[in-house]
Design a protein that fits this description.
Blueprint (H helix, E strand, L loop, with lengths): L8 H6 L20 E3 L6 E4 L2 H4 L13 H11 L11 H14 L5 E5 L2 H23 L7 E5 L31 E2 L10 H24 L4 E6 L2 E2 L5 E2 L2 H13 L3 E5 L23 E4 L6 E5 L1 H4 L20 H16 L2 H22 L4 E6 L2 E5 L3 H13 L2 E2 L1 E3 L3 E4 L7 H13 L5
Parallel strand pairs: 2-14, 4-5, 4-6, 6-9, 9-10
Antiparallel strand pairs: 1-2, 3-11, 7-8, 10-11, 12-13, 13-16, 15-16
Helix pairs in contact: 3-9, 4-9, 6-7, 10-12
Length: 436
């Protein structure tokens, strides 16, 4: 069969799959850094999208073309090893490096393909823990319920469907559990004494809802799960004091605290994990996207109260246990992050870009609630219709960018975004207001 020409991609794909993706065809060779090249037209796009925040390093970084790395990548790609059953030196290299340099705060790790399944297995770890504790205490419930927040996105798999509540089409008609869902007390920016008082009132409401859920469902709730910063639900921040209160409530009510860092993890906020900004460590942390494989990390301080899933064989597992080819790429990405000091770069460039967005907001009345941490940035527009028109304008100006929430725009650039690429992207972002 002849290879597909770029101009034929959508025609050929539409015969077999739903082709509702972005109307571009990626040139895998010519795309460089944060510059995405459309193989059909040769046009360049500035990438503030990064494959929904899953690509940590710009396209075709020189370190990815090193002969030794390319040789190892090809060697590993020829055989898809079932990592859960057959070990390799490459698996040991990846896990050792990740644990030592990116997850040393945690005792045990679990790997699987996909961030949603990382969340899923963190929930199973909590459910197993709670069930064993309930049985030992003589309680008649297994305690598998998960308390979660409005506007949360935790995936599209079995258990996570009962948690995700952003776009209705993503969960409609699928069977779901009736698990407690509470108010998310999102911050508004810039913060003022009045806005802080308002968010404190909403925090109090949320805390009251949480306490009532534990009272109404005694011994039934195994975990509280939250994204340290909500992503798809609207790039919603909370105060660190609220996360600290969640930790206290989880301890008080014999539940585990789970942080979903599938999107916030591996550096985009200027720290490896977003929770590090808030001084609250979870019992379980789910990861994916930038790590290139999904999974979860566990602090065993409380899990050690039972024979937990990180100790008992095959309580949680999968055939592949993550993808070895992805792991090799991830290892190279992590070395780049450390050796190029990209966390510091993200913090500095993020501050500059956030300052530029605030300056634009001061001149552009339709742009409000500018917020961010590191290179994780967002702003609001007056309503969903205006936001959607603005999003189309950005793409017309060759800026790859995303929406979130009811009326927000989110920026998700790569960690090694250059100052020149940042300026080009911001110029296109500003220009996109002109056609509104």
């Amino acid at each position: 069969m002849a290879k597909t020409e770029a101009n034929s991609v959508f025609d050929r794909l539409s015969k077999s799959i739903l082709t509702d993706a972005f109307r571009v065809v990626m040139d895998l060779e010519k795309s460089r850094g944060a510059v995405f090249i459309d193989a059909r037209t040769g046009e360049d796009y500035i990438d503030f999208f990064s494959f929904f925040a899953s690509n940590p390093i710009g396209f075709n970084h020189p370190r990815l073309s090193e002969p030794e790395f390319e040789k190892d990548l090809l060697r590993v790609a020829k055989i898809k090893v079932s990592n859960s059953d057959v070990y390799t030196t490459d698996l040991a290299d990846f896990i050792s490096y990740f644990h030592e340099h990116f997850a040393s705060q945690f005792d045990k790790l679990f790997f699987i393909e996909g961030g949603g399944l990382g969340v899923e297995n963190a929930l199973k770890a909590a459910q197993d823990w709670k069930a064993q504790k309930n049985l030992a205490a003589g309680h008649k419930t297994e305690g598998g319920q998960v308390l979660h927040f409005k506007k949360a996105f935790h995936g599209r798999t079995g258990y996570t469907l009962s948690l995700t509540n952003t776009v209705p089409d993503k969960t409609r008609y699928f069977p779901k559990f009736d698990w407690p869902r509470v108010t998310h007390p999102s911050l508004n920016f810039p913060t003022t004494p009045e806005s802080l008082e308002d968010v404190k009132k909403r925090e109090a409401l949320s805390i009251e809802e949480i306490k009532r859920a534990f009272q109404d469902r005694p011994h039934e709730i195994c975990a509280i799960i939250i994204e340290p910063i909500q992503g798809e639900g609207g790039d919603n921040f909370v105060r660190k004091e609220f996360l600290q209160e969640l930790k206290r409530l989880s301890l008080e009510n014999d539940a585990l605290l789970v942080f979903d860092e599938v999107q916030t993890g591996l550096g985009i906020t200027g720290k490896v994990w977003a929770y590090e900004h808030f001084g609250v460590k979870p019992d379980l942390l789910a990861f994916g996207k930038k790590v290139q494989v999904g999974g979860c990390a566990a602090d065993l301080s409380r899990l050690n109260e039972v024979e937990h899933v990180f100790k008992v064989s095959s309580r949680i597992n999968s055939t592949w246990g993550g993808n070895l080819t992805d792991m090799l790429r991830s290892l190279q990405f992590m070395k780049i992050i450390r050796e190029e000091n990209l966390l510091e770069h993200v913090r500095k460039l993020g501050e500059e870009m956030l300052g530029s967005l605030r300056e634009l907001s001061a001149k552009e009345a339709r742009m409000t609630n500018v917020r961010g941490l590191g290179l994780w940035m967002a702003f609001d527009l007056p309503d969903q219709a205006t936001r959607d028109r603005y999003l189309k304008s950005c793409w017309a100006n060759r800026l790859m960018i995303l929406s979130c929430g009811d009326r927000s725009i989110r920026l998700r650039p790569v960690l090694n975004l250059t100052k020149q690429e940042a300026e080009q992207g911001l110029d296109r972002l500003k220009k996109s207001f002109d056609s509104l």
